[in-house]
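Section 4.2 – Deliverable D4.2 (structural model, holo form)

The reporting period included a commitment to supply a predicted holo structure for the target in complex with (2R)-2,3-dihydroxypropanoic acid. Inputs used:
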Amino acid sequence: MSSARFQVYVTRSDMPECGIDLLKKECNVKTWKDASPVPREEFLKSIAGVDAIYCSLSDKIDEEVLDAAGPQLKVIGTISVGYDHIDLKECRKRGVKIGYTPNVLTDATAELTMALLLTTSRRLPEAQQDAKTGGWVSWAPKYMTGPGLNGATVGMVGYGRIGQAVARRVKSFNTAKILYFSRSERIEALEVGAIKVSFDELLKESDFVIVCAPLVPETKELFNKSAFEKMKRSAVFVNTSRGGLLDQDALIYALENNIIWGAGLDVTTPEPLPLDSPLFKLKNCVVLPHIGSATIGTRNTMSELTAANILAALHNAEMPAELK
Ligand SMILES: O=C(O)[C@H](O)CO
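Output (structure tokens):
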């Protein structure tokens, strides 16, 4: 084999093999030995001289990492559609390309968003717990009741690929109205008759508020105390995007004081959420461990796309999914 094989560092040992195998055909692949995020010190030490880094959303890619890798670094491939863990400006400054995984996880994430919404609104964890522990005494008319989607107004915050896929699914539940808040008017909204409104109007009108917007400086802590106070007391809040879109303490306050009805979170700050977080103690909150895209097929496709992005960049070819 020629000595010109590319050097790639992979930040955990359990990345789906199909992508790693693609890389191995052409590259020397060095992988962190454990199925957990590589410790920072180890990461910085291990990437000196590499051409590419295959990382996940748990790895912060900043100036220090780029310095530690060195000027030959060509590409960062992240197995995620979110890129808030990467310093885009710094990458751009150094000509380091970024590959990510849009589109391929849209359906899986939309499915999980619906599952979380229904799990929260229909109180499934609480109901199962009750059934298992003797709380199910008899059928009772008000027992385990919660808000339904039929006839409801649903507000989508963010109307990109995932937001649209959620809206299509929501529509099939016979909702009365779908509202959305987004920087620009979205032509795709016509498909489900979604109406663009201001953020405040969405908060005021919606029975369900679903967050599908990316975490960027403009959306950081968009949901603060004042936002929760503008929502209906009967509202269900669902976030499958990033924990940083909300002030978590403000959400805890809103849930503890019945300012909103309930919340379903697939993302938190930090991740994993510490076991002593008040969110775990609240009956009106469902917390999942960031599993939006976790179908077997989706994760395999994400891994292959991450590898394809890296290989294309290494060969100076067009990347299948470059973050521009
Ligand atoms: O950004 C992403 O890709 C999701 O949050 C995890 O798959």
